[in-house]
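explain this:
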Amino acid sequence: MFRTRIREYRKELGLTLMELGRRTNISPGYLCHLERGTRANPSINTMNAICTALGRNIQEVFFQTTEHNRYPIRDLNTGTNTSCCKRSDSNAGRGKENKGTGTQKTADN
């Protein structure tokens, strides 16, 4: 399910869904769906309008990362990659152990 932080930031500003809807020209019903995660993939214009009204950037509101996500994400405001979290040394070689060896694990091994 697609989750955002719209509700959290909206409440920090003391805004109702109606007020955020007025500021963004987006229906309160659609905003509610985005907050609950029952609608996904809003347009870039919709994301920009919401983020502008909340005083946040797109990455903060729509692409919040978790500690399990080790991959860089693209900041749509600056066009640069940002690291979402540090990789530990134990994860550095993950997925490369058998690459290029040409061996396959079978039931006979």
